[in-house]
Amino acid sequence: MIRLVRTDLPDEVALRLPPLTREIVAAPDRVRVARAAWKRAAVRRTVHAPLRRLLEEMAPGYQRCMYCGDSQGTDIDHFEPLSRNPVRTFDWLNHLLACATCNSNLKRDRFPVAADGTPLLVDPTVEDPFDHLLLTPSLGQYVGLTDKGRATIEVFDLNRPVLTQGREQAHRVVVLALQKWVAGRERGAEDEMREAVLTVRGQPLADVCQAMLRLAEAPGAARVLDSSVLPILRDPELRNELLI
What we know:
HNH endonuclease, mainly alpha, endonuclease activity, 2 domains, hydrolase, 4 strands, two-stranded antiparallel ribbon
């Protein structure tokens, strides 16, 4: 999971949402009306479609799930579930792109909150996930740094084997790409350098590279990162290309 920047809604889309919200607010059974409105054919065409396109543009890699970063994002997820707060059904700030596994199989209507009512799940468009989650790239495993981080790992099963193994492979790909980038710079081959950057940017599990870049400047970096890539990860030119 990495930090993402939420884009503004185009006016023609933004204007379609308030009437739908007012319809829900006025209903005696808000959850039922919200579900029906969300599934309406016209809404799928005029609201879902443009929202989905915007979320795909915001997503890491090529339209990847904003939670696991591995599978393709197929669903518009309500960060605060519709069943909990139907009034936010058409709230753009409540929409994220998720894969079916993270959305329908794992998260579903789960939404843990702290004692003060604040969410215990990380919203990557609101905060930096690395404030709550520590990833060891070579092992592909997350550790929660906060209650929010631990709850996020648990709800989305972020250490399930398919993800940890995928992150290990992503780590190997990043290391090879970094070495190719350095070799290209030594030969003055800008096309090779660009190809290496595109390889890293386009692959799934973008959190691996981002974790490596952040760990490279943290105390004790030499204990968790290979000495052969540590100087590359600290290179200002490369960091400018890759660091989000």
